Amino acid sequence: MPNTIREQLDGVERDIKLYEEFHDREKTRFERECFLWTAEDRIEWQKTQRSVAEYLCERQDKRNALLDELEE
Length: 72
Fold this sequence. Notes:
Blueprint: H1 5-33, H2 39-71
Helix pairs in contact: 1-2
């Protein structure tokens, strides 16, 4: 586990960046391929996107908490 608030913040920001990049790639893939997918494929894709969005919200909340802690 990172020792300092700054190290924790850096890790959270890396996570956010990676997940945002994944989300962008998946949106592009969806636009390119969705017409080939079955209904089940689309539902699974939506579930994955919802999970990614929830994780990003959690990470953004953690980043905000760490920023507040860093400012104190």
